[in-house]
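Hey, I'm writing a tutorial for new members on how sequence and structure tokens pair up, and I'd like a real worked example in the thread rather than a made-up one. If someone can provide the structure for the chain below, I'll link this post from the tutorial.
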Amino acid sequence: MVPHTECEDRLASHDAIGAAARDPKALERIKSLREETNALRKPLAVLRKSADDLVSEAAEVGVSDASHLRDEVDAIGERLDDLQGRLDDRCSRLQSAATAVSQFNDLVKTLVVDLNSLENELDTMKPPGRDLKTVRTQQDDLSRLVAKISRAGDEVNRAVNAGEHLVDSGNNQFMTVVFSNY
């Protein structure tokens, strides 16, 4: 099989798997395929030179139209350029998606730490006091804790919205990976 055709077939096969094509591991496969495609540039240059030499030699021996060789090589070059462009685009989109998921993952991890901290703070609160000074101090502590819980609730809502946005953006495969960590 011709190398550039093999690369095209592998990209088409990758596209055919649907949502799984947006899996984080797919980025490495696409980068590898992009490198393979880029490595075809040298053999293409050699082929182009050989075709030019053959066209020149054919003209010297009286063959009037051997330019179709050059046209064939140019067509292969165009296909290679197209494939390289599609792979570059795919890498860019996968990298953007991976970055978005990483940021979401960091947000969720921070949120888990904050919620654990609030739980610890609640667990370390003293039993209700009996004298006025202790009760007022506890009221102030409780008010601060309620404010922190409210802010944490806002952060939870932000995380939920960010997760929904990722799913709506087509990163639901990434969401499976992210939520499998929790």
